[in-house]
Amino acid sequence: MVRPHLVIFAKEPRIGRVKTRLARDIGSVAAWAFYRRQVAAAAARLQGPGRWRTWLAVSPDRAIFRERIWPGGVARISQGAGDLGDRMARIMAVLPPGPVVIVGTDVPGIRSAHIRGAFARLGRRDAVIGPAADGGYWLIGLRRRPRIADPFTGVRWSTRHAIKDTLANLKGLSVGRLEVLEDVDDGGDYKRFLKARKAKRCIPNTEP
């Protein structure tokens, strides 16, 4: 049976090498700690036993062998060389048959319901995208049949043009959209994240 694939893109969590924009505002150690928590949380929260297979796509490639730094129970694959588009295109090309959805680790609002929604859209459409508030996107998915589309060529990464460029590459194909979510790239984003997390903790649990 063909199974969908969820791929979580992650960098080796090293101080001074991850969340560098955030580190300028809150310090490198705090940014590193945030990133490590987000990698672990995404791997745990987005598992889909019996529904999709979860992969952790890691960078740099040599980090794939560092067992202790990655969440257990998740298959790992190396991202390969090139810019973000090159690496995502490679993942789309090498995974076994089935729809593929790729997410990052810097959007705390991602839940398994979003992944289910993405795969549901890929049952009817060629691609799916989850817009980010800054003009990028937090999720991209391809049905990969009858052929693998190329959404990533010429995309101006880390700019407000990223989603526009990607959608231009998908012109002529059917594309589903998910809700807009916010990633955490700088100190302002981080403050909003902490405020939202605090507010959520204050909401009483009324479930039986």
Overview of the molecule:
The chain is built from 6 helices and 7 strands; from the N terminus they run βααββαβαββαβα. It is an alpha/beta fold. α1 (20-26) packs across α2 (28-45).
Write the layout of secondary structure elements.
Blueprint: E1 5-11, H1 20-26, H2 28-45, E2 53-59, E3 75-78, H3 84-94, E4 100-103, H4 112-122, E5 127-131, E6 137-142, H5 162-169, E7 175-177, H6 187-202
Parallel strand pairs: 1-2, 1-4, 2-3, 5-7
Antiparallel strand pairs: 4-6, 5-6
Helix pairs in contact: 1-2
Summarize the main sheet.
Answer: 7 strands, mixed
Distance between the termini: 37 Å
Structural category is alpha/beta
- Parts with pLDDT < 50 across at least 5 consecutive residues: none
On the 0-100 scale, what is the average pLDDT? 94
Query: What's the helix count?
Result: 6
Beta strands, count: 7
Helix fraction, binned, reads: 25-40%
Percentage of β-strand residues? 15-25%
Sum this structure up briefly:
With 208 residues, the protein is α/β, with parallel strands linked by helices. Helices cover 34% and strands 17% of the residues. It has helices at residues 20-26, 28-45, 84-94, 112-122, 162-169, 187-202; strands at residues 5-11, 53-59, 75-78, 100-103, 127-131, 137-142, 175-177.
